[in-house]
Amino acid sequence: MSDLEIDRLSKRYGKLQVLTDCNLMAEGGSVVTLLGPSGCGKTTLLRSIAGFVEPDAGRVMVGGRDISMLPPNRREVAYVFQNYALFPHLTVAQNVAYGLTVRRRPRAEIARRVDEALGLVALSDFGGRYPKQMSGGQQQRVAIARALVLEPKVLLLDEPFNALDAQLRLTMQVELRKLIDRIGITSIFVTHDQAEAMILSDKVAVMHGGQIEQLAPPLQIYDRPSTSFVADFIGRANIMPVQVRAGRTDTPQPVPTPRPDGPAVMIVRPENFEVVPGNVAGWPGRIGFATALGATIEYEVDCGMPEALRVSMARAPGSGPLAQGTDVTLRLRSTDGAIVLGRGAAHV
Amino acid sequence: MTQSLFDRIGKAVLIGLACLSILLLVGPSLIVIAISFEPRGYIAFPPSGFSMHWYGEVFQNRQLMDAFLTSLRVAGLVMLVCLALGIPAAFAAIRGRFGGKSALNAFLLSPQMMPGMVIGIATLFFGAYFAWRQSDLMLVVSLSVFCLPFVVRIVMARLAALDPGLDEASANLGAGRAQTFFRITLPQLAPSAIAAAAFTFIEAFDNVTVALFTSDVRARPLPVELYYLVQFESTPMIAAISALQIGFSLIVLVILARTIGLDRIGR
Ligand SMILES: Nc1ncnc2c1ncn2[C@@H]1O[C@H](COP(=O)(O)OP(=O)(O)O)[C@@H](O)[C@H]1O
Ligand SMILES: [Mg+2]
């Protein structure tokens, strides 16, 4: 199992700087997701790994070997295209066999390996069909079999589930993760769906404006976002300007922080706030909007800041939300759960 | 309600057009074929009897048969030249990345705007400048200029519709450029290349406007030969030749339909 390492990769198209100094490390056999809004450079980064895009600077290493100079057909890096890119004039079996055919493997070996690969994606009986005669989910499995049959060192997938309906998507996500674990291949996924990133990955690389803002395991990304963009993009977040003084914030409930004195931002997840009645230490405010979602109750509380603070509380059976206009106090459940960042990390 | 009224009007127009085209296209052809069976020595409709006499005359006419062979040879050559130049040109026009691409496109397609006559005369004058006389070669060259835009256009249309991602997929799976071209691009281009070939062949085979000016006087192609023939002959032999040509075109069409399917021709 080979590590994949991206080292200070940059790319510009004309005046548009699409990638800036991207660093990424995927340990052998692990799954890393590139997550970010549309247009942030995910596809460009993935295509650079496959060699379809020639970066202006930086290196791509697989198993410690620099592959930056190799043409796409010699990289041993499998790419599953967003639209699958199956060859329409070839049958499913011929599609899967393609990479072996161009390598002039013996016929018996090709037949055996194609059978295996189709078995892996549960399409053994479909070898004789043409791509057109397959559903979207099946086509995707063909594309994956076609990539895996070559036993590549790295598997790259660009928004592989986009074209599938919600039901199938979840099934395929789980199936694919199981498959990757079974064969143990280093994989890079691109997605703009944070739930998908959570399900699939060992690590998430959150991208924003051509940069990787944070690379960490999913829960760490959620609990310890390194920028307010990451906090806002992964789950929901209340982002508040604060002042740090002597190792703690100047908020009603002070939060300890190693940051130097001065302006900062504090990030609080909605579930780390609770709404309590009366006047206790906390953020006084008034309920602006309330919805009960079954398992939780969601509040928007007006605390005199430019934006209302969002709160998400577990709902006790039989209970309902407080009425709009009720005067309440917001309290942090855990001061450790609040995140204090420098102002520099506060762009959204 | 209005929808179905529109539908009905549309259908009526369609049926009307179909009838009209049958009347104007198929009708004359049928009449020509009927006349070709006339046993007597002059043109009459309906024919007074049924005879293959004039077909025999055609096949015994050395000059006509030579003209037919000249046309076959020339059309075959024009087809090959146009494919050999047209497919790469279409590639450059669609896939190429270079300055002046749109100028090149316009240049490639411009002969289509020009009447065949102009191309014929221009080639003739151009040849005269270099003391190059009418010949099979000049005929092939002038007809190739005339037909090339059709090939480029047909192949370009198909190429533009191909997913460039397929080339990347092929490279990603380990294929070199040549392998990708022969295994992925060309097979998908084949139907349009065959259609272009057939089109070029038929066009080159029965072209008069260009050939009139550039063909060798001693080895005229069939259409030019016929053009001169009708001025002296008024026997049903002319009809027999026409009938044979109709048959010939039909055979080409049937072969095309069998190999690639009628609906895919020209796509
Ligand atoms: N070949 C290209 N030429 C010019 N601009 C491009 C090209 N490819 C991508 N871009 C631009 O680079 C940016 C990032 O694109 P992309 O990597 O596709 O983003 P994502 O996959 O995250 O949506 C976009 O602004 C896009 O318009
Ligand atoms: Mg993309």
- Rounded to an integer in angstroms, the radius of gyration calculated over CA atoms of chain B is 23 Å
Report the radius of gyration of chain A as a whole number of Å: 24 Å
- Quickly give the structural class of chain A: alpha+beta
Count of beta strands of chain A: 19
Spans of chain A with pLDDT under 50 lasting ≥5 residues? Answer: none
CATH homologous superfamily of chain B, by name? Answer: MetI-like
Sheet of most strands of chain A: 6 strands, mixed
Helix content bin of chain B = over 70%
The 3D shape of chain B can be described as globular
What assembly state would you assign to the polypeptide chains in this entry?
heterodimer
Could you describe the 3D structure shown?
The complex is a heterodimer of chains A (348) and B (267). With 348 residues, chain A is of the alpha+beta class. In chain A, 24% of the residues lie in helices and 33% in strands. Chain A has 8 helices and 19 strands. A 6-stranded mixed sheet of chain A has the order 6-7-8-3-9-10, with helices on both faces. A 5-stranded antiparallel sheet of chain A has the order 14-18-15-16-17, with no helix packed on it. In chain A, α2 (92-102) crosses α3 and α3 crosses α4 (136-148). In chain A, 41% of the residues are buried. The mean pLDDT of chain A is 92. With 267 residues, chain B is mainly alpha-helical. Chain B has one domain: MetI-like fold, CATH 1.10.3720.10. Chain B has 11 helices and no strands. In chain B, α1 (2-36) crosses α11 and α3 (62-95) packs parallel to α6 (136-161). Chains A and B meet through β6 and α2 of A and α7 and α8 of B.
Layout of strands and helices, then pairs:
The complex is a heterodimer of chains A (348) and B (267).
Chain A: E1 4-13, E2 16-26, E3 31-35, H1 42-50, E4 57-62, E5 65-66, E6 77-80, H2 92-102, H3 107-120, H4 136-148, E7 154-158, H5 166-183, E8 186-191, H6 194-200, E9 203-208, E10 211-216, H7 218-223, H8 228-233, E11 238-245, E12 248-249, E13 262-268, E14 273-277, E15 283-292, E16 296-302, E17 309-314, E18 327-332, E19 339-342
Parallel strand pairs in A: 3-8, 3-9, 6-7, 7-8
Antiparallel strand pairs in A: 1-2, 1-4, 4-5, 9-10, 11-12, 11-13, 13-19, 14-18, 15-16, 15-18, 16-17
Helix pairs in contact in A: 2-3, 2-4, 3-4
Chain B: H1 2-36, H2 53-60, H3 62-95, H4 101-109, H5 116-129, H6 136-161, H7 164-172, H8 177-206, H9 211-214, H10 222-232, H11 237-260
Helix pairs in contact in B: 1-11, 2-11, 3-6, 3-8, 3-10, 5-6, 6-8, 7-8, 8-11
Bound molecules: adenosine-5'-diphosphate and magnesium ion.
Magnesium ion binds next to helix 1 of chain A.
